[in-house]
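Lab channel / #folding
Pinned by the channel admin:
"Please post every new chain as: sequence first, then the structure tokens as a reply. Keep commentary short and put observations after the output so the thread stays searchable."

First post following the new format, from NK:
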Amino acid sequence: MDIDPTQPWGLAIDYAGRATLTESGHTIHVNVSDTSLSSVIGPDSISGTYSPVNVTAQFTETGEGGAVLRGTGRITIMPVGTDPVAPDPTAVQRAVAAALTDFAANAAACVALCAQWQPNDGTGDGTTPDPDPDPETTA
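Reply from TO:
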């Protein structure tokens, strides 16, 4: 992902901290938000510190039969001392990289799961798992 040096967070975000970008052929939704429960951005009345900021990136891809794979990534930026969190232009880039990695891991897990099931080749109903050829390797 290319970082836009003219933007504090590395890409243009809307008033609610949202952005959409395309990376590796995926449309990725990004959200930048503080973790407070307050609508007022200010220091916590007890600790005197500002809330951390979460940068999340998420996307889904849909296939045949309603199959859906998701990739998500989250980066948390902690405030330093009593100062608010300063924008980090690399945070979105790191969250997007984490989402792409998560998607690849989910895709590999789906392939491994599907490989455990016998195809419906006329000898079965396609819902029976393959017997484990070597039970000692999976124990």
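NK: The chain has two helices and four strands.
TO: also worth noting, The helical segments are 91-115, 135-138.
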